[in-house]
Amino acid sequence: MNKFSIGARLWLAIGISALVMLAMFASVAVRSARLTAESQAADERQARVTLVAARWSGLTETNVQRVIATTMGSDAQVAQHFAPAVKATSATISELQKELEALAASDEEKAQLAKVAAARKAYLDAREATTALHAKGDADAARQQLNGAVLPAVKAYLGEQQAFVELQVQLADRRRQAQAEARAQSLVFAGLTLALMLTGMAIGGLLLVRSIVRPLRAAASAMAT
Length: 225
Prior knowledge:
The chain has helices at residues 6-72, 76-103, 107-135, 139-224. By secondary structure, the chain is an all-alpha fold.
């Protein structure tokens, strides 16, 4: 420091302080931008999952009502009328299920979707057996299959779907809590950085003052003698 003039020392101190403050604000801004981006992405994914799950469940219930109407009715034309719609809706449900599996971001979601897939397979197997009995003209056996296998399988299937929706609510609550904690940590980080900066500025200012005062005192002593 003694190699620099007083003016250079002052400008150097100002420059260092400005750089430290710039670094602090840049760090806080980067952390804040990252948290905002992560929160926005999570919100978008959550909204999409909720929309797909709601449509998924609605189409399932629609198909169940079609199967019930087909099985309980004695008119073959009813079955012929609903058959294409049931098939098309099942294909759409399969697509929605694949989309949810692709959107699943946690092990909990993947595990619950596996349960839903297993419950759906059980329902489809029971539904096919009922349809086959009805196609053979065995209406009584078809109704027994409907009440004894299809409806319980539907209840289990919809229950697993509902469990998936409830899991999304739990995950959303956890995510909001984690984001709040992350923002709090960001504030703590900013506070600590500011404290370190102020401490550094105080120490640097003290050293700067000493480097300026000592030569002045030495010069004053030399002039006094």
